[in-house]
């Protein structure tokens, strides 16, 4: 087990792309603490799989260093780094039984036979496949196969980290929940550093202690799920985390007030004094937007109300901008209404980065 | 209620039925018809029962040709399959060399059989052929016209030259369909090059390899044109395979009844052996039935 330090990593897939300043990873400089459960969250093409392959050693970064504890492993092969990786599609060795699959990494590392047996048996029990130990692995279901991939990593008790590359993509929805909680359980038992790549916020937020949000080849925020919700450091985080995402409204600052498409909003003192950037935006989560009687707030045009059972999502239009609000299920939505923002929940962004909060 | 089904649909099958009848069933039945009769000049035919079959099955000539054919198929399979796999493994997986390699590999397959035969007939001659002349000049006494072993080597090498590409192309198709994740996982599991081949590449090639073996077996068992052009079945009868023998019998000796019986037996042997290959190879990787235990 190890602390993983990513020291100013940059990566381009070819020298030509690097010359054109077209980096898949623009710059990542961060560390994953020993024994932590991390999720790399971001949309497709944001560089999260590139980063994962750099940690595992399947890719060598164009610039920067990877360190496990104090050892520089940048130039080492995946095998020498002693990590495990679970891929998007379950990788199993078709002709082997479940038991042989789990023993394979040990056999390759010349672990004595007497030791392989008990360790494989123990792993079979932990991943719940003891009853199918002597079946050919290829006949199993997708989630069982994915458990085998995972087991092959965990069976080597000395691995530095386990990396997951969207491991639940091909798993049925009802099995996803179960597998994810089993994963969490295994993490508690083994206390290994786990890095989990996903584009699904629910998966990231339920699995990880710390979520690393990536956007366009950069890490935009690392934080607990709560921090990401309450204090999005970048408008992308606000928009990507939460459903619906944060309302981000372009505005103009002027003497303690903000103007959003002609409507003036009084701001709390902490925000009002902030400097504006090339673009200045006001961010507020739909949870903190309320409906008030006409004349008491900001006039909007309600376009749609989605009743999702436990709550209502109101989609409205403020000038040319869209605003959503989440209301309690039994709250009625009048035809003419204004909206009000909870002042203490306002965030101010200059050039997409958080500059002030109430 | 209107009937939702009727038997008119059968009419749609009619064209295919006619086509198959003319292309396969009727010719085959003609052969069956000949195989139970003896023919004499002036188109006279007499009922002969199963005697032709008995005669063919007990004739030494047939046994020898059959053994030669089995030996030939065994040799070329033993060479072409491993060689084909090796070449496929060595071929590039991406880049501009892929199409170049593929075209080069496909070339021998596009050459008509008797052209291949003629090429090798000339190529291997000791007086004017590049190969024959070179081998002779190296001090090796080589002459495929006189020496049985030399004739066999020539025919086998020619077949390997002509058909290994087919195995290569099929194996290559199997190889490129393996997702990268398998190789990455194997790297992480610390698998050796041999283990990657044994546990990833070979199992993933299994299906296409089965097709390759079947095709090569059937083709080599039916081989006619190339050895006919190169050696004409000689020296003596040493390269007279079943099909060459069959033609000698049917057209050379005009013994239609015996030839018909022989071709039916020939056909059944190919069918039987192909079926055995297929069953053995598809069952090889399957789960054995579990004794006891849950599920």
UniProtKB/TrEMBL annotation, chain A:
<protein>
    <submittedName>
        <fullName>ABC transporter ATP-binding protein</fullName>
    </submittedName>
</protein>
<keyword id="KW-0472">Membrane</keyword>
<feature type="domain" description="ABC transporter">
    <location>
        <begin position="4"/>
        <end position="241"/>
    </location>
</feature>
<dbReference type="InterPro" id="IPR040582">
    <property type="entry name" value="OB_MalK-like"/>
</dbReference>
<dbReference type="InterPro" id="IPR027417">
    <property type="entry name" value="P-loop_NTPase"/>
</dbReference>
<comment type="similarity">
    <text>Belongs to the ABC transporter superfamily.</text>
</comment>
<dbReference type="Pfam" id="PF17912">
    <property type="entry name" value="OB_MalK"/>
</dbReference>
<dbReference type="InterPro" id="IPR047641">
    <property type="entry name" value="ABC_transpr_MalK/UgpC-like"/>
</dbReference>
<dbReference type="InterPro" id="IPR008995">
    <property type="entry name" value="Mo/tungstate-bd_C_term_dom"/>
</dbReference>
<keyword id="KW-0547">Nucleotide-binding</keyword>
<dbReference type="Pfam" id="PF00005">
    <property type="entry name" value="ABC_tran"/>
</dbReference>
<dbReference type="GO" id="GO:0005524">
    <property type="term" value="F:ATP binding"/>
</dbReference>
<dbReference type="InterPro" id="IPR012340">
    <property type="entry name" value="NA-bd_OB-fold"/>
</dbReference>
<keyword id="KW-0067">ATP-binding</keyword>
<dbReference type="InterPro" id="IPR015853">
    <property type="entry name" value="ABC_transpr_FbpC"/>
</dbReference>
<dbReference type="InterPro" id="IPR003593">
    <property type="entry name" value="AAA+_ATPase"/>
</dbReference>
<keyword id="KW-0813">Transport</keyword>
<dbReference type="InterPro" id="IPR003439">
    <property type="entry name" value="ABC_transporter-like_ATP-bd"/>
</dbReference>
<keyword id="KW-1003">Cell membrane</keyword>
From TrEMBL, chain B:
<keyword id="KW-0813">Transport</keyword>
<feature type="transmembrane region" description="Helical">
    <location>
        <begin position="259"/>
        <end position="280"/>
    </location>
</feature>
<feature type="transmembrane region" description="Helical">
    <location>
        <begin position="70"/>
        <end position="89"/>
    </location>
</feature>
<feature type="domain" description="ABC transmembrane type-1">
    <location>
        <begin position="66"/>
        <end position="277"/>
    </location>
</feature>
<keyword id="KW-0812">Transmembrane</keyword>
<keyword id="KW-0472">Membrane</keyword>
<keyword id="KW-1133">Transmembrane helix</keyword>
<feature type="transmembrane region" description="Helical">
    <location>
        <begin position="96"/>
        <end position="115"/>
    </location>
</feature>
<dbReference type="Pfam" id="PF00528">
    <property type="entry name" value="BPD_transp_1"/>
</dbReference>
<feature type="transmembrane region" description="Helical">
    <location>
        <begin position="160"/>
        <end position="183"/>
    </location>
</feature>
<feature type="transmembrane region" description="Helical">
    <location>
        <begin position="204"/>
        <end position="224"/>
    </location>
</feature>
<feature type="transmembrane region" description="Helical">
    <location>
        <begin position="12"/>
        <end position="36"/>
    </location>
</feature>
<protein>
    <submittedName>
        <fullName>Sugar ABC transporter permease</fullName>
    </submittedName>
</protein>
<dbReference type="InterPro" id="IPR052730">
    <property type="entry name" value="Sugar_ABC_transporter"/>
</dbReference>
<dbReference type="InterPro" id="IPR000515">
    <property type="entry name" value="MetI-like"/>
</dbReference>
<dbReference type="InterPro" id="IPR035906">
    <property type="entry name" value="MetI-like_sf"/>
</dbReference>
<comment type="similarity">
    <text>Belongs to the binding-protein-dependent transport system permease family.</text>
</comment>
């Amino acid at each position: 087990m190890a602390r993983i330090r990513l020291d100013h990593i940059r990566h381009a897939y070819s020298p030509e792309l690097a010359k054109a300043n077209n980096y898949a990873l623009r710059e990542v400089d961060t560390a994953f603490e020993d024994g932590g459960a991390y999720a790399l969250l971001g949309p497709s093409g944001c560089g999260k799989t590139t980063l994962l392959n750099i940690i595992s050693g399947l890719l060598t970064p164009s610039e920067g260093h990877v360190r496990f504890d104090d050892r520089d492993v940048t130039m080492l092969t995946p095998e020498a780094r002693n990590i495990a990786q679970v891929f998007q599609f379950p990788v199993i060795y078709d002709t082997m039984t479940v038991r042989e699959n789990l023993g394979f990494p040990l056999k390759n590392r010349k672990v004595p036979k007497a030791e392989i047996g008990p360790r494989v048996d123990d792993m079979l029990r932990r991943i719940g496949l003891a009853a199918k130990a002597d079946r050919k692995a290829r006949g199993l279901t997708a989630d069982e196969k994915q458990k085998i991939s995972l087991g092959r990593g965990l069976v080597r008790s000395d691995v530095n980290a386990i990396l997951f590359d969207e491991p639940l993509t091909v798993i049925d929805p009802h099995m996803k929940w179960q597998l994810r909680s089993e994963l969490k359980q295994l993490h508690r038992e083994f206390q290994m550093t786990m890095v989990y790549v996903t584009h699904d916020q629910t998966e990231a937020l339920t699995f990880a202690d710390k979520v690393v949000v990536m956007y366009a080849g950069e890490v935009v925020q690392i934080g607990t799920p709560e921090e990401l919700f309450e204090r999005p450091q970048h408008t992308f985080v606000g928009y990507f985390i939460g459903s619906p995402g944060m309302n981000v409204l372009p505005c103009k600052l002027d003497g303690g007030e903000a103007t959003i498409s002609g409507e003036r909003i009084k701001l709390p003192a902490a925000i009002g004094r902030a400097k504006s950037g090339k673009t200045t935006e006001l961010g507020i989560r739909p949870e903190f937007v309320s409906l008030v009687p006409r004349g008491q707030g900001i006039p909007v045009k309600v376009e749609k109300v989605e009743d999702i059972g436990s709550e209502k999502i109101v989609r409205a239009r403020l000038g040319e901008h869209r605003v959503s609000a989440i209301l309690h299920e039994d709250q009625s939505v009048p035809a003419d209404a204004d909206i009000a923002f909870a002042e203490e929940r306002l965030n101010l962004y200059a050039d997409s980065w958080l500059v002030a909060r109430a | 209620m209107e009937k939702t089904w009727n038997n008119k649909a059968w009419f749609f099958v009619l064209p295919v039925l006619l086509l198959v009848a003319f292309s396969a069933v009727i010719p085959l039945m003609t052969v069956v018809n000949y195989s139970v009769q003896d023919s004499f000049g002036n188109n006279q035919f007499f009922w002969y029962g199963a005697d032709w079959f008995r005669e063919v099955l007990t004739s030494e000539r047939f046994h020898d040709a059959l053994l030669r054919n089995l030996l030939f198929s065994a040799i070329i399979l033993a060479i072409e399959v491993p060689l084909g796999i090796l070449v496929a493994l060595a071929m590039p997986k991406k880049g501009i060399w892929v199409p170049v390699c593929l075209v080069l590999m496909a070339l021998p397959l596009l050459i008509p059989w008797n052209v291949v035969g003629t090429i090798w007939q000339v190529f291997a001659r000791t007086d004017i052929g590049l190969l024959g002349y070179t081998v002779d000049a190296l001090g090796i006494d080589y002459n495929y016209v006189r020496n049985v072993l030399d004739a066999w080597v020539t025919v086998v090498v020619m077949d390997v030259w002509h058909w290994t590409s087919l195995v290569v192309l099929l194996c290559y198709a199997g190889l490129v369909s393996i997702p990268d994740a398998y190789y990455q996982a194997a790297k992480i599991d610390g698998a050796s090059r041999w283990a990657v081949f044994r546990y990833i590449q070979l199992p993933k090639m299994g299906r296409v390899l089965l097709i390759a073996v079947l095709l090569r077996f059937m083709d080599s068992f039916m081989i006619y044109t190339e050895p006919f052009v190169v050696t004409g079945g000689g020296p003596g009868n040493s390269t007279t395979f079943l099909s060459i023998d069959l033609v000698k019998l049917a057209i050379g000796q005009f013994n239609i009844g015996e030839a018909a019986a022989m071709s039916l037996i020939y056909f059944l042997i190919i069918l039987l052996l192909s079926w055995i290959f297929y069953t053995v190879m598809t069952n090889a990787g399957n789960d054995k039935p579990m004794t006891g235990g849950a599920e």
